[in-house]
Design goal:
The chain contains 9 helices and 8 strands. By secondary structure, it is α/β, with parallel strands linked by helices. The protein has 2 domains: 91 residues, Potassium Channel Kv1.1, Chain A, CATH 3.30.710.10; 110 residues, Arc Repressor Mutant, subunit A, CATH 1.10.10. It has a 4-stranded mixed β-sheet. Helix 4 packs antiparallel against helix 5. The termini are far apart. 22% of the residues are buried. This is KCD14 protein. Pfam families: BTB_2, KCTD_C. One of its GO terms (biological process) is protein homooligomerization.
């Protein structure tokens, strides 16, 4: 049984009750076409996806009468497969997790959070970074400094001071006072109380800046001869490559 012709016009909002619809539903999810049972979409009553197809819907249809959901269609197949067979995806985990959160499918969310990829990110890495003061703000500060220095250049650099303990923070300040540079342009990370090392934090910084679309690398910052501290104990240079 096909979807009623009253749903055919482009962009028309559906106003009738979904109880009158065919049990077979056609979907257009971000340009990807799917056909499934209405009962499959409503499998988890508390989910946002079930709410889309319950009572008086607030959905629009495309020119062919398919219900349109403005989300990435590529990953919806994994959502649909879980609803059909309780099969938890083993690929594209991070992206499927975002979609599971959007559709608020709690059983899938919980199972994905137990996967190594999501568990490692949420429980291990993110919990560590939450203990590094102003981590997110410092990432944005690094990007602003790098962009400001990118005029007519292939690369721009940002000096980062990384300190793990309060004692290191004091030594770093002494070292910073001896450095021949604009101290306002040095971004400081730490101290923190957690197991991960300075190198772990440096890799987290690189990972999160790259996630924003930038090409970046880092290396120890070696000061000029005669510098009375080992600058590479605290200071690192992050290179942004623009072209």
């Amino acid at each position: 049984m096909s979807i009623s012709s009253e749903h055919k016009p482009l962009g028309k909002q559906v106003t009738g009750s979904l109880h009158t619809l065919s049990p077979i539903v056609e979907l257009n999810v971000g340009g990807e076409m799917y056909t499934t049972m209405l009962s499959t979409l409503k499998k988890h009553p508390g989910s946002k996806l079930a709410e889309m197809f319950t009572g008086q819907p607030k959905l629009r249809t495309d020119s062919e009468g398919r219900f349109f959901i403005d989300r990435p269609g590529t990953y919806f197949k994994y959502i649909l497969e879980y609803l059909r067979s309780n099969q938890v995806p083993t690929q594209c985990i991070q992206d499927v997790y975002k979609e599971a959160l959007f559709y608020n499918i709690e059983p899938l969310i919980k199972q994905l959070e137990d996967s190594p990829q999501i568990f490692g990110e949420l429980v291990a890495r993110r919990q560590f970074l939450a203990r590094v003061p102003n981590y997110s703000e410092n990432i944005e500060l690094m990007i602003r400094i790098a962009r400001a220095e990118a005029v007519a250049a292939r690369q721009s650099s940002v000096i980062v001071c990384v300190v793990r303990t309060e004692e290191d923070a004091a030594r770093c300040q002494d070292a910073l006072n001896s450095l021949d540079m604009d101290k306002k342009s040095v971004v400081k990370f730490g101290p923190w109380k957690a197991v991960p090392s300075i190198f772990d934090l440096l890799e987290c910084i690189q990972m999160d800046v790259e996630a924003k679309g930038y090409k970046i690398s880092f290396q120890p910052h070696v000061a000029e001869k005669g510098f009375r501290f080992k600058s590479h104990d605290y200071f690192y240079k992050f290179l942004f490559t623009w072209w």
